[in-house]
């Protein structure tokens, strides 16, 4: 038996594993790194978040990714080089964290790497009858493993597609294992570039769990402010949105994407919700000359309404707590609109469940890696609900 297989086998048999979860989302703000102590697997999983940080990307990183990000026509040489480069960069960032946390690679069983999504195209979006669902995450894990010396599990979404689903949201697998509670109905709401939710009923019935993307979280607001003020990454504190007034005609035009009428589970991305989409909506609603603050106020409301409508449509506010996470929770206007639009629901962040909201998605990938090496059947999985019972992730060894 090769030594790395022996080591992996020993990790899988341990009562407790240390796994570093890595998430680099669609906002391209930085790499979320979560150091997790995980014991057990499946419904017996216990996880302690020991450390977490977000290492902000430099402009150079963002520019290299944006050159291809959610674009249909790209330079293939650039994609090829970027794939290896991101793997190396993420590896260096992990090493930086280990030094800061006074740990060595020997202290870590696994890295769980989401990689960088550069294109997501479920069939509902591309609508080309020749193809099925597709998604592409880059940042090759062999580079991460060799750079860090740590076995790396990566590329979680392909198996989900191979098994008939859309490759996302994968949050449901970890949400169910970590956050289900008989004490209350829960909605795990993540507001990243794209917003998604997982419904966890207090009756714990696995067949009733569901999860879906629900629309733009921050992605349109981010893209718009960057277009107006190229040096700015996002509308901090909703500063610009607060100065504007919602345009009802523009809001109505933005809400017409067939995505909103489609049944859950469904997925989307900046391939749909982008500046072209906004421009088209402005043309349709004759609001091309709207002031920037009014556009931003409308985009903020659009994100809030997308979340409110999805929750109102799917879930009754019966003893239900919404546990929010993702960068959108730092947007006070967005959060106020959610509270106003969802009376009867209680609001908290995942911090109340011991997981820092900025680290939640990285934690979920650590859980998926744990399931990959030590888990089994996914308890709620059912092809009919869109959540196949599969292990996800590919294993890269350092030697
Ligand atoms: N102080 C703040 N004020 C307003 N918005 C904020 C603030 N802090 C973060 N955000 C928003 O959160 C975004 C980052 O969110 P997050 O890191 O959850 O996204 P992501 O993980 O890249 O997304 P996804 O999970 O959809 O891929 C920023 O781009 C910004 O829009
Ligand atoms: C293709 C892709 O990277 N999708 C992300 C993105 O960010 C949020 C939303 O869109 C979600 O579908 C997904 O990430 C989370 C972690 C998920 O799979 O649950």
Automatic annotation (TrEMBL):
Pathway: Amino-sugar metabolism; 1,6-anhydro-N-acetylmuramate degradation; Cell wall biogenesis; peptidoglycan recycling. It comes from the Bacteria. The keyword Kinase applies. ATP binds at residues 25-32. It catalyses: 1,6-anhydro-N-acetyl-beta-muramate + ATP + H2O = N-acetyl-D-muramate 6-phosphate + ADP + H(+). SUPFAM superfamilies: Actin-like ATPase domain (SSF53067). Its EC number is 2.7.1.170. GO terms for molecular function: kinase activity. Keywords: ATP-binding, Carbohydrate metabolism, Kinase, Nucleotide-binding, Transferase. It is an enzyme of class 2 (transferase). Pfam families: AnmK. InterPro entries: Anhydro_N_Ac-Mur_kinase (IPR005338), ATPase_NBD (IPR043129). The keyword Isomerase does not apply. HAMAP family: AnhMurNAc_kinase. Belongs to the anhydro-N-acetylmuramic acid kinase family. Catalyzes the specific phosphorylation of 1,6-anhydro-N-acetylmuramic acid (anhMurNAc) with the simultaneous cleavage of the 1,6-anhydro ring, generating MurNAc-6-P. Is required for the utilization of anhMurNAc either imported from the medium or derived from its own cell wall murein, and thus plays a role in cell wall recycling. This is Anhydro-N-acetylmuramic acid kinase. The lineage of its organism: Bacteria, Pseudomonadati, Pseudomonadota, Gammaproteobacteria, Alteromonadales. The gene is anmK.
């Amino acid at each position: 038996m090769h030594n790395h297989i022996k080591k992996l086998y020993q990790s899988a048999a341990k009562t407790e594993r240390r796994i570093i979860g890595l998430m680099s989302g669609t906002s391209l703000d930085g790499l979320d790194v979560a150091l997790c102590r995980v014991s057990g697997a499946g419904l017996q999983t216990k996880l302690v978040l020991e450390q977490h940080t977000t290492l902000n990307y430099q402009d150079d990183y963002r520019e290299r990714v944006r050159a291809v990000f959610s674009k249909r026509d790209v330079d293939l040489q650039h994609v090829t080089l970027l794939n290896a480069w991101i793997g190396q960069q993420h590896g260096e960032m992990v090493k930086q964290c280990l030094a800061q946390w006074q740990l060595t690679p020997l202290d870590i069983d696994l890295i769980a790497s989401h990689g960088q999504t550069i294109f997501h195209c479920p069939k509902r979006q591309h609508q080309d009858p020749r193809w099925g669902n597709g998604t592409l995450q880059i940042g090759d894990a062999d580079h991460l493993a060799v750079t860090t010396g740590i076995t790396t599990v990566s590329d979680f979404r392909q198996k989900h597609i191979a098994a008939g689903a859309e490759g996302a949201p994968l949050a449901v697998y970890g949400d169910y294992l970590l956050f289900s509670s008989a004490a209350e109905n829960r909605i795990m709401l993540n507001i990243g570039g794209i917003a998604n939710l997982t419904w966890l009923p207090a009756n714990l019935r696995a067949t009733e769990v569901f999860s879906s993307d629900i629309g733009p979280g921050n992605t349109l607001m981010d893209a718009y402010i960057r277009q107006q003020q190229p040096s700015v990454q996002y509308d901090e504190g909703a500063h610009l949105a607060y100065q504007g007034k919602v345009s009802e005609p523009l809001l109505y035009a933005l809400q017409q994407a067939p995505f909103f009428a489609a049944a859950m589970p469904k997925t989307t991305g900046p391939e749909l919700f982008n500046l072209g989409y906004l421009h088209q909506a402005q043309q349709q609603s004759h609001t091309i000359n709207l002031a920037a603050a009014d556009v931003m106020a409308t985009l903020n409301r659009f994100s809030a309404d997308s979340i409110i409508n999805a929750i109102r449509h799917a879930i009754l506010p019966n003893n239900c707590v919404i546990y929010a996470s993702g960068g959108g929770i730092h947007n006070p206007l967005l959060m106020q609109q959610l509270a106003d639009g969802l009376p009867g629901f209680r609001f908290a962040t995942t911090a109340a469940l011991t997981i820092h909201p900025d680290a939640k998605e990285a934690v979920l990938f650590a859980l998926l890696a744990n399931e990959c090496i030590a888990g089994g059947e996914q308890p709620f999985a059912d092809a009919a609900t869109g959540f196949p019972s599969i292990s996800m992730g590919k294993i890269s060894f350092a030697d």
